[in-house]
Design goal:
By secondary structure, the protein is of the alpha/beta class. Among the domains are: about 250 residues, ANL, N-terminal domain (Rossmann fold), CATH 3.40.50; about 110 residues, 2-Layer Sandwich (GMP Synthetase, Chain A, domain 3). It has a 9-stranded mixed beta sheet, with helices on both faces. It has a 4-stranded parallel beta sheet with strand order 4-3-5-6, with helices on both faces. Helix 2 crosses helix 3 and helix 15 crosses helix 16.
């Protein structure tokens, strides 16, 4: 794949502070960011900052931060315009921003403590309303009482330091993007201004977005890579308006997201697969009749495996609202590459059906019946190679291999993890790799295949189920298990491997909506049904099937199934003794 970047759109400056200054100078009175607050008003109270107002508030926070260049500043704000101000204020002060979340986010206190310990911030930016909770959380961490706490909505008056802030350079570190930790402990990806702005240009070009008339609309958490780049950095770099809402507001009423998209012509957004399913099943017919989804430019589907049946349902559900299938852009990406790696063209998503047995042996062969995968498009401004992870040899099209990425958007490594950085960001190709650089390559840990010119994602190497010498992709097994009963929560099934007597064995843990109502016989019958379906579809015998109440299958901070964590709970006996073995 060519790495040509000459046709990529130009961003407003070489660094994030330079982009903000540019738009404040040339478009100061234009809306920059709007936060729609559904917590204070069910209809959504809109609070807007113009580019000039955003610049003034960012400068106030930057001036009040007691930091030196290179210090880390953690952003522990609730989702709001204050988050945008705090993030940009930290970078404008010459510090390295660390986008996180306030301690009130349920179920993620352990991750927050681990990340704060890892990055050792000098200061934290939060809001006045959350300040007491943040100080209380910090007091429980080693050295936490020495961390300065600043409220983005009430910064102290006057400068906090006497030294000037040096002008940021493109190769300076802008922020640390901590990974979601789906297969390991969170690690901070080191991203420079150049990395981030290169990725913005790649994504805008690949998606065909017109910055002059576009508006980004996002409910995704700003601490997540896709939410941060879509909801904050892309509009900042391209001069687009950003419309934000809280993730909880989406969960409460998903139509709110679609209403905001309808409010703005040329709007574009991004969401994981579950949001497409959730919207298609939770938005009422009378609400759909009011939507103007013909105004949507594109919605990116990424961050988790894409289910073609979910896309079909979403497209059918919102067809009368003006939404067309070609507006859905399947994509693949990861934090180590800033976020976007491949995106689909402006046509309906392509779906291919692959023979499961052949795919398990490393070959993608189309079949009438098998595993359906959605094409995730092609790279823009970066190289993508499918590589044998053991030998480093580039594989031919049609062969399943590890996805390796090379481009200006790839981060420089993990924060203070030199060994892991070398292993992940410094891979080398071996053998014949004509037209591709030998080094350095990012090893993604993801399995994929190039078929008919596009990339299809098969799964994670660490999640792969290898039983009796055959490979099974967990999301495929999970989908089969979920089909056994309508009360098994979609996207809330985990399949993983444990050590068996002679080989690895597979286990299913599934959430059930009516778990408390199930009798022992009900559970036995449903477990048997899951076993039969998985055996018939995959030739896979399950060692164990465990049914649990809603909320018991762990997820990462970005909502992905945390299979390694689920396996840990299972082995620790947290789910009790299974009924069927």
């Amino acid at each position: 794949m060519s790495l040509a970047t000459e046709n990529l759109p130009a961003t407003a400056g070489p660094t994030l502070p330079a982009c903000l200054r540019h738009w404040a100078d040339v478009a100061g009175d234009r809306p920059a960011v709007t936060f729609t607050d559904f917590a204070v008003d069910r209809a959504g109270r809109r609070r807007t900052l113009t580019w000039r107002q955003l610049q003034e508030r960012v400068d106030a926070v930057a001036g009040a931060l007691p930091v030196r260049p290179g210090d880390r500043v953690a952003i522990l704000c609730p989702q709001s315009a204050d988050y945008v101000v705090g993030f940009l204020g930290a970078i404008t002060a010459g510090a390295i921003a660390v986008p996180l979340f306030d301690p009130g986010l349920p179920g993620h206190a352990g991750r927050l403590a681990a990340v704060l310990t890892d990055c050792s911030p000098t200061a934290v930016v939060t809001t006045a309303a959350a300040e007491d909770a943040v100080r209380g959380f910090l007091s429980g961490l080693p050295g936490g009482e020495r961390v300065a706490v600043l409220a983005a909505d009430q910064p102290a008056e006057g400068p906090a330091r006497a030294w000037p802030v040096p002008e940021a350079a493109p190769d300076d570190v802008a922020y640390l993007q901590y990974t979601s930790g789906s297969t390991r402990s969170p690690a901070g990806v080191v991203l420079t201004h150049a990395n981030v702005l290169a990725n913005v240009a790649q994504a805008v070009h690949g998606l065909g977005i017109d910055p002059a008339s576009g508006t980004t609309v996002s409910w995704l958490p700003l601490f997540h890579d896709m939410g941060l780049v879509l909801g904050l950095i892309t509009p900042l770099a391209m001069g687009m308006r950003s419309v934000l809402m809280d993730p909880l507001a989406f969960i409460e009423r998903p139509v709110r997201w679609l209403e905001l998209l309808s409010d703005h012509n040329g709007s574009w957004s991004a969401a994981p697969n579950f949001a497409f399913h959730y919207s298609a099943t939770r938005v009422r017919e009378e609400d759909r009749a009011r939507l103007r989804l013909d105004r949507v430019a594109a919605i990116v589907n990424g961050a988790e495996p894409i289910n073609p049946d979910v896309l079909d349902r979403f497209h059918a559900t919102f067809a009368d609202s003006g939404y067309r299938p070609e507006k859905t852009r399947p994509a693949y990406g990861l934090a180590e590459a800033t976020v976007f790696v491949t995106t689909g063209p402006g046509e309906p998503p392509r779906v291919a059906t692959f023979d499961r047995a052949a795919l398990g042996t490393g070959t993608a062969r189309q079949a009438d019946d098998g595993l359906k995968l959605v094409a995730c498009g092609v790279p823009v401004g970066q190289h993508v190679a499918l590589v044998d992870p053991e030998t480093g040899v580039v594989l031919e099209d049609g062969s399943v291999g590890e996805i390796w990425v090379h481009g200006p958007n790839v981060g420089t490594g993990y924060w203070q993890k030199p060994l892991e950085s070398t292993e992940t960001f410094g891979a080398r190709l071996t053998g014949d790799h004509e037209g591709l650089p030998e080094w350095p390559w990012l090893r993604t840990g993801d399995l994929g295949v190039r078929h008919d010119g596009e990339i299809y994602i098969a799964g994670r190497i660490k999640d792969l189920l290898i039983v009796d010498g055959r490979n099974h992709y967990p999301q495929d097994v999970e989908a089969t298990a979920a089909s056994a009963d309508r009360d098994i929560r979609p996207g809330s099934v985990a399949a993983f491997a444990v050590e068996g007597t002679d080989t690895e064995a597979a286990v299913i843990v599934a959430e059930h909506r009516r778990h408390t109502e199930l009798t022992t016989e009900d559970e036995r019958a449903l477990a048997a049904s899951i076993r039969r379906l998985v055996s018939d579809a995959h030739g896979l015998s399950l060692r164990d099937v465990v049914l649990v109440p809603a909320g018991r299958v762990p997820r990462t901070s970005s909502g992905k199934i945390a299979r390694a964590a689920c396996r840990g709970h299972y082995l620790a006996g947290d789910y009790g003794k299974a009924l069927v073995r």
